[in-house]
Amino acid sequence: MQKRQFLRTLLATALIGSATFSLTAQADALANAQKNGVLRVAVPQDFPPFGTVGPDMKPRGYDIDVANLIGRELKLKVEIIPVSSTNRIPYLSTGKADLVISSLGKNPDREKVIDFSIAYAPFFNGIFGPSDAAIKTAADTAGKSVGVTRGSVEDLEFSKIAPSTATIKRFEDNNATISAYLSGQVQLIATGNVVAAAVNERTKIRRLDTKFLIKNSPCYVGVNKGEAALLAKVNEVIAKLKANGELNQVSQRWLLAPLPAGL
Amino acid sequence: MAYVFDFSSVLEYREVLIDGTLKTLTLTAIGTVFGLALGILGAVSRAWKLAPFDRIFTVYVELIRNTPFLVQLFFIFFGLPSLGVQINEWQAAILAMVINLGAYSTEIIRAGIEATPKGQIEAAQSLAMNRAQIFRHVVLPPALLKVWPSICSQVVIVMLGSSVCSQIAAEELTFAANFIQSRNFRAFETYFVVTAMYFVLAIAIRQVMIQAGQRLIARRVK
């Protein structure tokens, strides 16, 4: 008898629990945030230059700047929640955060779980080289030496589109690829824009300018499914920040490059 | 825990493997010829105290034998361009191998030269031979013959060490292996095949070196 009672209680608790859970998930996050005056944003803490912990122990980076700009536009106080790349979506779907601004790329699996805003940050693999190299397409790399990190996405993708006369030199790791470029052993390199930004920040020997994109997967703000009001507002703010040049300033600050035109 | 081997994914890339093998052999051949030549020069300079070369070779030998090959290679490939000397990955690889084998063979051959009995040199002097003639005809051949097994081993070590050149994108056999396993994700099979290839290469090179020793040196000594 007692056992049955226990089971019943358990079942009831579970039911109530799931009811409350679905309530949170379906509530209007924008209205909630406005009521509390706080916008909770999940940001990375271990992924420079998008989000790191600064010398003052506070999170800083591209994503944090964007979070603060969105908060300013919505006239809400921003609560920064540092997350890792594995738990950033769970934070959103369990209602612990209103927005995920955590260098999140879009893919079909994620689109089943959450909704995405318009793109707010560039994230791509491309060919980089000195500013005076006239290279705009893969065909222009004919006769040039291009350093890549062996087995990387850039290696696999560029190997498919490279002209036969381009010499692809495959190095063991990103460091060797970058050293080869900086010491002039290769004329161009294929790498990610974030890597190129980090290199440009640390050395002035040979700058890395974007020549063309190989694979583009920009970052989007993630919101929960069914939060149409919040999503519309975020999109409106991002569009405004792009138009008034403030997002470009963020890009210059953290990626040391202007926003790509197509973003 | 049964692992299913799939060698077909490696054989797909056999041209890459063959190309890598040829390049490893070329590197080794050029490295051996010039490295041994450098070693003979170094050995005679040090054994006969030919100033100022004996001092120079002493510094060189200590420097090379007390630093890792990989660091020497990086120094040449990434370092020299900063000084305005532009060399490609093959020139860097060959240079590093020659310099490396040169230092080790200096010491090996010096041991052989110093083991020459004094009486032989004195006998040659009494025949009015000059120093160059004595070295070429009386000292060097028996000296090389004495240390030839060590030289064979050192050449095999240098050949195996050339695998490090894959780090500067020289497309030799290890580069081929890394390249293949980054495409087919069959690391076990790929390295299985390449390990076997290195093994066969090492045995073959040792045999060739032993034969070369007998043809070129042993005949002259007798």
TrEMBL record, chain A:
Residues 1-27 form the signal peptide. InterPro entries: Solute-binding_3/MltF_N (IPR001638). Gene3D superfamilies: Periplasmic binding protein-like II. Transmembrane segments: none annotated. Residues 38-258 form the Solute-binding protein family 3/N-terminal domain. SMART domains: PBPb (SM00062). Keywords: Signal. The keyword Oxidoreductase does not apply. This is Amino acid ABC transporter substrate-binding protein. It comes from Azonexus hydrophilus. The lineage of its organism: Bacteria, Pseudomonadati, Pseudomonadota, Betaproteobacteria, Rhodocyclales.
UniProtKB/TrEMBL annotation, chain B:
GO terms for cellular component: ATP-binding cassette (ABC) transporter complex. Keywords: Cell membrane, Membrane, Transmembrane, Transmembrane helix, Transport. It holds the Pfam family BPD_transp_1. It comes from the Bacteria. It is a multi-pass membrane protein. The chain crosses the membrane at residues 20-44, 190-210. One of its GO terms (molecular function) is transmembrane transporter activity. InterPro entries: AA_ABC_transptr_permease_3TM, ArtM/GltK/GlnP/TcyL/YhdX-like, MetI-like, MetI-like_sf. Gene3D superfamilies: MetI-like. Residues 21-209 form the ABC transmembrane type-1 domain. SUPFAM superfamilies: MetI-like. It is found in: Cell inner membrane; Cell membrane. One of its GO terms (biological process) is amino acid transport. NCBIfam families: HEQRo_perm_3TM. Belongs to the binding-protein-dependent transport system permease family. HisMQ subfamily. PANTHER family: ABC TRANSPORTER PERMEASE PROTEIN, MEMBRANE COMPONENT OF AMINO ACID ABC TRANSPORTER. This is ABC transporter permease. It comes from Azonexus hydrophilus.
